[in-house]
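Following up on my earlier thread - several people asked me to post the actual chain instead of describing it. Fair enough. Here it is, all 265 residues.
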Amino acid sequence: MLSRNQVKYIRSLHLKKYREIHGEFIAEGSRLVSDLLESGFKVRQILAEEEWIRDHRDLLAGKTWITITAITGDEMKKITLLSSPGPVLAVVSIPGPISPGTGPEEELILMLDGIRDPGNFGTILRIADWFGIRQVICSEDCVELYNPKTVQATMGSLARVTVWYRDLPGYLSRLKPGVPVYGTFPEGENIYAKTLKDNGIVVIGSESAGISPEVKERITDRISIPFFAPAGDRKGHAESLNASMAAAIVCSEFRRRMHFNRTLI
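Reply from S.P.:
Thanks for posting it. Predicted structure:
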């Protein structure tokens, strides 16, 4: 049974103000909640249909700190943000500061500059997860990581990708000499023809403005994603790719090249 206070509290977490006050966020859907339960995130509450609780009893076993409440589908509609609610919703603690991992001297890191759309942001984190990129550095004006739409769009990748918010120009100014900083530009070098390293930073600009001027100054390698029009087609082409599409293409080419280079060793 869902109490009135529970409904009020969970609905408050739809808003950033209350996520910051309480230090918690919500996650919905069986796959996403299961991934968070198996990760380093601390799940505080599970509100789920009885069948889901029964089917996931092994995953919940031993996690005595979690409050588990069985609710009906109608009760789920009172707390969900989804048009088609899933069988489970979790309330999860927002983690405290995390120590940085290895830097761009050793691995490939994504940098997001001014990404404002939560769906795009979550999708980019999912792309990073797919291509084995474990760290994403965001500008301070990027959309909030724990926005429910961002959380949903990650499809569980939130549990496997570390996200940092930083002053990007300041961060880039402190990089060691020789670390490549790649950015996509219409006039950049064709990514399929350019030599790419396995390490460094790939900057993805905002959906509307691209890479900010302050970050542009610190790009060492300008790359472009070429368009391909059928022979004789004079109608032009799409004006641009959105941020998540560009991220997927760039990450795919970096990883393809990395795999190809290693097979030659």
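The chain has eleven helices and ten strands. That should answer part of your original question.
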